[in-house]
Structure formats: structure tokens, C-alpha cells
Amino acid sequence: MTNRNLKRATIKSEQNFNLEESIFSGQSFRWIKIKKNEEYYAGIIGREIIFIREDKNHFIEIIKLNESDKTNDLNLFLSHYFSFEIDTNNLFSDQFKHNFPEVWKLVQPYLGVRVMRQDPFEVMVTFMCAQGIGMHLIRRQVSMIAERYGQKIVLETPEGEVVFYGFPTPSALASADPSELAVCTNNNRIRAKNIIAMARSFESGKLALACVGSGECDLETLRGTLCVHSGIGLKIADCIALFGLGRFDAFPIDTHVKQYLWEWFGIEEARRSLTEKNYRLLQEKARAILGTEYAGYAGHILFHCWRKEVKKMTAF
User: Fold this and answer.
1) Sheet of strand 48-54: strand arrangement
2) Where among 244, 267, 294 does a domain terminate?
3) Residues 235 and 314 in one domain
């Protein structure tokens, strides 16, 4: 991969890290695998094309298209984006390992799954698209939104042009026609209208400022701010907090999480319907097992492990 505008950095990962398991664990839907002479994973972060690969010796190479004169520290970027400051070996307490030895044995190969710090607006749109559908369809919807409303970015390579699409700006979606956006949301006009309304709130600065200050308020206040918007309930708000705002205490609960809370931990309430009251109760019981500060981080590793080891799922 050669281009005069490409910047490269290579670092040795000192932490548990599995690149593929991280980007295909159900928290992000825009990364793609590229197989040429070497295996890279490509994505758009902000307005920049990023290529990453990991070799057998745990060296990570990151390449980005450097369109500006600014020299960014790719090592710092990589560490922040993949939350390398978190030691995943410490996410599960000794008490957890003692009380749930079989779960601990299952989860160990997935300690390389990193919760990524993604763009909050992109995460909002993504998880508003994700309600009640599978990951393949989520990926398709998000790709269609980017292609229709995002900026086209063309990268010249020795093998020819490679076309990418940046994620749409809040203003691009705020001005979208609901009927046209619905084409990208599986013909769901209500979902399209909710995304447009949320984008307008973000564009106005109200929601954007709430995201900027998200680390300074308690989780309940943050969720309340997000849930004011139609199309965002507690589960989506927790996904936004966890994957878009770096709130590793946020613990999203969906069908799979509900299943493992019962099957692995015997939480009786996980057999009941996921009402708001029961959702909150399940979170309390999950935090009693996983702790509070990193409950969401640990919960996402458990989620990915459950889907792969127990449900035998392959679509991410």
C-alpha cells in the first residue's frame, strides 16, 4: 500500500488485543476486511481513512491518509481508540473467577476484545438503526446512509481506486427528507424521522454539548438527556454511552445479554420481559457481579463470548 499522503506507525501491543474480534464484536458496523498482499482492516474515523493490521508477533501497523499538514500521533490515537489503558485482565474479579469458573474459562480467549471510543453521533445513528434487527442488516443500513449522505473519499492505490464514504455530518442528516432516508432504514419512516430529529438536536448544539460534558455527570443524568429523543430508549442510550462516550459503566441489555444473565449467572429476573423496571433491576444485579466502574466493558466481552461460544453466531 503506497501513497505519498499515507502516514504509518507500528507499535507493539502491550495489552491483550485482538483486532478482528474487537471491530467485529457488535459495537461498530463500518470496518471492512481488505485482503491484498497483506491483510488490513479499513475504516473511516472522522474524515480520515484508516488501515490497521496486526501480525503474529502482536505488532500493530496503522496507516492513515494524511490529507492535512497536521502531524497526529498515531500511537496515541490507537491507544485511545482501542482503550489500551484498560487492563482487561482486571475486568473480572477473583470472586467472579471463583464463583463462575466455567464462564471465566470460556471468556479468557475474548479478553483481547477492546471497547472502542467511537464518534458519538455515528454511534447514535447506528444504534437507532439497530433496533430489532440482525447485524448484517444493521451494517447494510449504516453503509447506505453513508453512501447517500456522506462525503465520498477516493484513495489511489497501485491496484486502482478504492472508494470510501465518510459518515454524514449532523447537518446532512438534519436536512434529509424522511422518505429518502427511509430507503436506508429498511423503509421504516418512523426510524428515519427519529434520526432526523436527533440530528437536528445535535446540529443545534444541545445534544452535542451534552455529549461533550458526558463524563462530568452521573450515568442516570446522561441517559435521561439521551432518552428525551424519540427512538432512544434505555438500551440505545447505554450503547451510545458505552461505545460513543467512553462510559464503561454503561451496561446495555438486549436479548443475548438477558440470556447469559440467566444461563450463566442464574439471575431469575432475566427470564421475565424486558420492561424498564426489569431492565434497571437486571443492571443492578449484573453490577453486583461485575462491579460498577467497568460493568459495560466486561459485559460487552461476555456478550461477544456468548454469541460466539454458545450461540455459534458468525455474523458481525
Assistant:
1) 6-12, 59-65, 48-54, 39-45, 32-35
2) 244
3) no
C-alpha cell at 14: 502491550
Quote the CA–CA distance of 206 and 198 in Å, as a whole number. 10
Looking at the structure, tell me whether residues 285 and 274 fall in a common domain: yes
Hey, what amino acid is at 205?
Answer: G
Length of the chain: 316
Beta strands in 107-207 (DSSP E): 152-157, 160-165
Report the distance separating Cα 27 and Cα 36, nearest Å: 26
Which grid cell is 183?
430507503
Lowest mean pLDDT of 159-173, 271-285, 288-302, name the range: 159-173
Task: Give the total number of structural domains in the chain.
Answer: 3
Instruction: For helices 295-305 and 276-290, give the axis angle rounded to 10 degrees.
Output: 100
What is the tally of helices (H) and strands (E) in the chain?
15, 7
> pLDDT tens digits, residue range 73-112?
788 888 899 999 999 989 999 999 999 999 999 999 999 9
Q: Which residues pair with 6 in a beta bridge?
A: 65
The residue from 244, 264, 296 where one domain ends is 244
| CA dihedral sign, ordered 28, 30, 36, 37 | negative
The pLDDT tens digits of the residues spanning 197-213 come to 999 999 999 899 888 88
Please choose, from the candidates 173, 168, 166, the residue with its C-alpha nearest in 3D space to the C-alpha of residue 47.
166
pTM for this one?
A: 0.93
Domain that holds residue 180: 120-244
Four-CA torsion 58, 84, 264, 28, nearest 10 degrees = -90
pLDDT band at 190, cuts 50/70/90?
Answer: very high
CATH number of the domain enclosing 127: 1.10.340.30
77 class by beta-carbon count within 10 Å (0-12 exposed, 13-18 middle, 19+ buried): middle
Grid-cell match 423496571, residue found:
277
What distance in Å separates the CA atoms of residue 189 and residue 101, rounded to the nearest whole number?
47
- Let me know: does 6 contact 52? Beta carbons within 8 Å: no
